[in-house]
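Quick one: structure tokens for this chain, please?
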Amino acid sequence: MSLRPLLALTHGLLWLAAVAALLAGLALCVAAYGLPGAWFQGALDAAIPADWGRLTVGRVAFRPGAGLILERVAFHAPEGRLLGGFARGAFAFRLRGGGAWVERLAGAEVDGLHVAQIVYGPEPDGGGEGGEEEPFPDLSGVHVPTLKGVRLALTNPDIVEIRAKALTGTLDAGEGKLRFRDLRADADGSGDQRVEADVTIDIHDAKAVASIRGFLIQTRLDGLWRAINCPVIGEYCDHFALAGPAWGDCAFTVGFDLARDLLDLRLDLLSTEGGTYRGIPFDEAQATIRCRSIWDTVAEIGPVVIRRDGQVAAAAHLRLDYPADRLSFRAEADGLTPAECFGLVSDTLADDLPTIVCDEHPFVSVEGHIPLSGDETLPSQVVLRGLARASGGAVIEGLPAASAEARFAMTNGVFSVSDLALTLPHGGALSGALAFDIPDHAPHADLSAAIHLRDASLADLLAPVGRETLTNCFATGFADLRGRLGPDFAKTLQAEYDLTVDGGLISRLPLFAGLTDLLAEHIPGVASVTDSSSARLVGTADHGRFDIPDFTLDGDLLAIEGPAVYDLPSDALSAEVTAGNFKRGSVMGTLTRWATVPVNRFLWRVKVSGPIAKPAWRLTTFVGRLWDNALGDGEEEAP
């Protein structure tokens, strides 16, 4: 037997072994290190039209048990903007079954998935900063492979800034749609903060429909509002500062093409760990947000419900209509301060409130609308109406009230208070109406008021200026006032008034201190006769000058009467009054008055002049002159 065939066979076997070893080595190298993605770039560019974007891969490998390995995958928009990508992905395929390899995809494990933006494209006018953008590509002809039950496992995904430690789910595809079912995200790896979602991406119709529910971390939603180009929702969500994650249920439909302006969103939030809304603290809060359209946004936020101590403290509803440039609002509170209630709606409304301190939280309801845009809201742009009621007592700009209630409104730059009803702590009531005409650009507003008093405590009425000691004095009557608020208010004041003060202790007013001293000097022991007295003022005021043709002060044993003039701008009182015996209207006063008037006019005529807080009282009859002469001969008059 010849050895030549045997040697040829051995040579062939060795050659095959060498080739097999080389192929095995190459396979091991490919498995260990992969192939450069640049080798496949041409095929990727041919598969994806340039007007859609560009897909790049850093390295490609295949490993038994793991499947196809892709590293450093990125997808860029046509102008170069990064839309998404991932650091590493392992894709397992079924070996059995017909169809293309992509349709045999059984599972995907992706690490570091990053989705930067969902929607893109030009604004409705086709423009944008930096020039005209590329139009959104036509996706109606894109072939979507048929996939069933593809298992997904993502590690550290960042999808429009919504981040998690882990995300799992199932992918189905076909008929132009990608359906992500039973998505479950673990936000922090603890297993406690879970989010569930279902997402359908309609490639042909260029839109996504999503339903997300679970524990939502507030800051991680910001990226979603930016991604769907609806920052207005983010702005109002930022009014919440939550102490922990909130339970949320969000459903939205959004179009990828901005020019198409497709958006329909609803978000329900419940915070049980406390926080603040517009700086207002709460124990628990819930809110519903609805929004439709991107460019012509109309959003409804509400009801926003705030709870304290297990009770509903306030509820508000806002409607943001950008085409109409209007923020409409409705709020009701029974557990907040007045400033907090108005603050639920707008900081501007809260800043313009008077100083009100309530012993118990008042009831406040308000509704109306203000402009959405602009750095400054003008008075003529504010429309509101509402009701305020403080049943447990309040102090309004220093005026105490045992209870208070009023309706208020604002339109055409006029803020009005109607049905005003106050009961006072020491007795009596105040009622009436006020109106403030507030021009848009004028420095001051015009005030008109009609105030009615019924046995109203003078101590309470004068509490803002520190006269709380007059607890036995009560006022009845009315005062109609008009004037321009500001430094020149006194010079513009117009008024009509008819006021009666009863109950005694009037002499303790600084106005009558001089009268008490005068009586004590001339008639020892008579200083207390005005401690049980009444006074009446009837008259008008023009440009701050009060004309009182019939001023009377009645004491038990002494009464004075006469005309008076008070100039408010210069704080100058001028009056010449006549003293009488006994109180006018009393039996003794009526019987003795006809006989004593000539004597009183001859002996007890008093001139009053000076500032109203401390005027000078001086006798103008010959008795006064004799008294002054006597002082001049032997002693000095006390200051």
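DSSP finds eleven helices and 39 strands in the chain.
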